[in-house]
Amino acid sequence: MQQAIAYKTWHPSAAEAAGGGGGGEGEVAATTTDFRGFLSNNVLVVLGRKGCCMATVAKRLLLGLGVNPATYEVEGETEEAEVVAELRRGREGDGAKGTDLQLPVVFIRGELFGGMDRVMETHITGELVPILKDARALWL
pTM (2 decimals)? Predict the structure, then answer.
């Protein structure tokens, strides 16, 4: 019997400690830069709070479909506020409201796909699997 490959989890604080870190305002820039780099290096990313049950639901749903999502977990209110502010800045150009953004969210090919409501809606209607196939996150 084949075993599933465990999903990747990445903690920004661990990467900063390994890479030198720094202090003050440099940490804020490092977090958002690391976050954008993480998105560009992974086809499918689940962004959520560390230990969030809804982020776990999103990961389990995607794993059940045969997709191995990377996860980006934020720790603490400060880091969460930085990442959400970065997401809102990125959404200003497309005319979307930034106030309705709640974690967890899913990114496909570096673009914001949506939160749990959008993931569940597209899964129930049968649209999620074709979207994942088009993004080449799912091959079957």
Answer: 0.70
